[in-house]
Amino acid sequence: MFGVLSMKIPVSVTAEQMDEINRLVIYQYGIQIVQSVESTGHALARICRRYLGGKVDKKKIIVLAGTDRIAAGGIAAARYLHGWGGSITVALVLHEDALKKSALNQLNIVRSMELPIESATDIGLARLRKFDLIIDALLGYKTQGTPSSEFASVIAAANKVKKPIVSLDVPSGMDATTGQVYHSCIRANATVSLGLPKTGLLRTGAAKFIGDLWLADIGIPPETYTKIGLKVDNPFIGDDIVLLQKEEAASVTA
Fold it and tell me: DSSP E strands: which ranges in the chain?
């Protein structure tokens, strides 16, 4: 279904380097955020389908969404999963007034599709246990420090229900650069990193929080890496989604 990277894990990037990559993607190459979000959502949805045993139809999926581009990617994935027959709920940690433009745009799309939009903090453990899969689109690679109480409570609930969790880019509550795990951190079954893996995902001890580590192509021009001084062997020659690292203890048998 997806490729397995036979070479060594490609170059990893810090949060600061990823910021510069995103800046170049937008201002040097003119690739708009909405285009990257769309690619992100599709890749994430494909991985989620894998952790649902290859079939989305009639499966219950909840997207736990924060406020930024990571939330936008998670909500975009919801659209695809809905189209593949899934029963989707989007759960916001904060009021939609706090959403950045990219996330609000995606929220408005799913609202027009009449998909359920709820408050994540209002969804109790009993209800959360009824979902077949949880998408962690709470906090992105820029996260530093312990998540705020609103996010921490949602992270704790997600971990407690023992349902498959797929994290987008970095498990929420982990420092993308250092790999430091804060007091509240998602324990994912799989993490879908975008473009290049973040340095923190490869640190000792990170595997039990990231689960299987996947890398997804979201259309970053390879020349972007050269411009910031990185020499990268293109990991997507054989496939646009590749498995970098398998965490046997965290894998899901659907």
Answer: 3-4, 60-65, 87-92, 117-119, 133-137, 165-168, 190-194, 212-216, 241-245
Task: Report how far residue 37's alpha carbon sits from residue 97's, in angstroms, rounded to the nearest whole number.
Answer: 20
| Distance of alpha carbon 105 from alpha carbon 44, whole angstroms | 18
Q: Around Cβ 54, how many Cβ atoms within 10 Å?
A: 9
CA angle 148, 62, 212 (to 5 degrees): 80
- Please choose, from the candidates 216, 145, 156, the residue with its C-alpha nearest in 3D space to the C-alpha of residue 181: 145
Where residue 182 falls (left for φ over 0; alpha for ψ -120 to 50; beta otherwise) is beta
**How far apart are the C-alpha atoms of 102 and 73, rounded to whole Å?**
9
CB 196 within 8 A of CB 173: no
Q: Can you give the pLDDT at residue 144?
A: 83
Q: How far apart are CA 216 and CA 5, in angstroms?
A: 12
DSSP per-residue letters across 161-217: TT--EEEESS-TTB-TTT--B-SS----SEEEEESS-BGGGGSTT-HHHH-EEEEE-
The DSSP symbol for 61 reads: E
% of the chain surpassing 90 pLDDT: 86
The DSSP bridge partners found for residue 64 are 91, 136
C-alpha radius of gyration, the chain, whole number? 17
Rounded Cα distance, 38 and 69, in Å = 11
DSSP 63: E
Decide if 147 contacts 157 (C-beta within 8 A).
no
The parts of the chain modelled with pLDDT lower than 70 are 1, 3-8, 248-254
Q: What pTM did the predictor assign?
A: 0.94
Backbone angles phi, psi at 191, to 5 degrees: -125, 130
